[in-house]
Amino acid sequence: MKKIQIIDSKKHVGEKVKIGAWVANKRSSGKIAFLSLRDGSAFFQGVVVKSEVDERVFEQAKSLTQESSVWVTGTISEDARSKFGYEIHIEDIDVISEAVDYPITPKEHGTEFLMDNRHLWLRSSKQHAIMHVRNEIIRATYEFYNKEGFVKIDPPILTGNAAENTTELFQTKYFDRDAFLSQSGQLYMEAAAMALGRVFSFGPTFRAEKSKTRRHLIEFWMMEPEMAFMDHDDSLEVQEKYVAYLVQSVLDNCDHDLDILERDKDLLKKYTELPYPRVSYDEAVELLQKNDFDVTWGEDFGSPEETFIAEQFDKPVFIVNYPKAIKPFYMKRHPERDDVVLCADMIAPEGYGEIIGGSQREDDYELLRQEIVDFGLNVDDYEWYLDLRRYGSVPHSGFGLGLERMVTWISGTEHIREAIPFPRLLNRIYP
User: Which parts of the sequence belong to the Aminoacyl-transfer RNA synthetases class-II family profile domain (predicted)?
Assistant: First the structure.
């Protein structure tokens, strides 16, 4: 008898199969039992009819506890009443392991309780769907960059210097010297781009930022492409093409998951239409001031400001050319202005905030060296980075996309903590 996964049921309609699963829930009457089964690939219904099975099998079905693991044997059939579309008519049940007093019952639970039991909460249908969306974004990322001629490079997690704000570094001892957990792989990706042209990385990054907002994590994953011989405008085109590709891939391959999440697919489809609008930082400030926001030129935008700007458009929007004083040292100055840099943040619709930050990198040795000094950084720590400007410097650009922010937006999830399997928050490192 063939063993299959639930997700492959459509290939085996009318066949007798065996499936290993957990019992997510159950209900029964005097003559029939309905089992909600999951196996990691999907959820579907198992039906046990008393008149069609041994009495032992029916009594076993009625006594199964939530999250007990079982082998079920039966015939796959179509089920037009369910969104999944298929079910199994069970003939036999073999209990693998009985679960006793599973803590997450079908009733409502508080967020802190669910986070304390994150290792079990992942089993629920909504969390299952979010993880599928996350997986599809990762899969589609590799596909996109491979198609575009990029090379995957892995920057180090332990670094000897800061990429951005030195106050957000996690410090550790590296034998007889200090080291830090990576804030970003960008500086190393620039070195890789000078060797391989177009590169991308995907890995964990860490920010010791004491924030409790729904958009922030202490540990998160970043997609960071870096591109030689590309200016700022070239980079914006890659960014919007990439984001549209991710949205379309989720629509194509996570249809059932989006149903579980009750996500508006027509709205998501709108986000695949290019190009995305662009507004300058100057225009954004003017727009906010006209609508009674208390903002001054030179300040960074917070969540309310980003949300308002995004609401003026029906697609993601780029805010370009931020003030130099609020951006990292490596961003290239605007050719016509000393007070702004060639950079952009992509703001997602629906109040999800920034999902991409990027810029053209400063390629002039003297200017970059002076910026390192002006930022109060130790030039000796950045000699290797300056070498990239000494030996064959070229115009180059790059950006970083926060995976969890992308997952939160596409899945329509309220809080970023549900977009990663085991979130690390200001007050949480368990489980």
Answer: 131-431
β-strand partners of 206: 219
Contact between 260 and 126 (Cβ < 8 Å)? yes
Q: Taking each helix axis from N to C terminus, what angle separates 232-253 and 125-147, rounded to the nearest 10 degrees?
A: 130
Q: Are strands 151-152 and 86-97 parallel, antiparallel or unpaired?
A: unpaired
Q: Which residues make beta-bridge pairs with 20?
A: 71
- Domains of the chain, with CATH numbers? 2-97 (2.40.50.140), 118-419 (3.30.930.10)
Antiparallel, parallel or unpaired: β 353-360 and 198-206: unpaired
Q: What percent of the chain has pLDDT over 90?
A: 94
For 301, counting Cβ atoms within 10 Å of its Cβ (0-12 exposed, 13-18 middle, 19+ buried), the class is buried
- pLDDT tens, position by position, 248-307: 999 999 999 999 999 999 999 999 999 999 999 999 999 999 999 999 999 999 999 999
Q: Is the pTM of this model over 0.90?
A: yes
3-state SS of the chain is CEECCHHHHHHHECCEEEEEEEEEEEEECCCEEEEEEECCCCEEEEEEEHHHCCHHHHHHHHHCCCCCEEEEEEEEEECCCCCCCEEEEEEEEEEEECCCCCCCCCCCCCHHHHHHCHHHHCCCHHHHHHHHHHHHHHHHHHHHHHHCCCEECCCCCEECCCCCCHHHCCEEEECCEEEEECCCCHHHHHHHHHHHCEEEEEEEEECCCCCCCCCCCCEEEEEEEEEECCCHHHHHHHHHHHHHHHHHHHHHHCHHHHHHCCCCHHHHHHCCCCCCCEEEHHHHHHHHHHCCCCCCCCCCCCHHHHHHHHHCCCCCEEEECCEHHHCCCCECECCCCCCEECEEEEEECCCCEEEEEEEEECCCHHHHHHHHHHCCCCHHHHHHHHHHHHCCCCCEEEEEEEHHHHHHHHHCCCCHHHHCCCCCECCECCC
**Rg from Cα positions in the chain:** 26
Distance of alpha carbon 425 from alpha carbon 430, whole angstroms: 10
CA atoms of 256 and 411, how far apart (whole Å) = 12
Quote the tokens at residue 214: 């729904």
pLDDT tens column, 61-83: 999 999 999 999 999 999 999 98
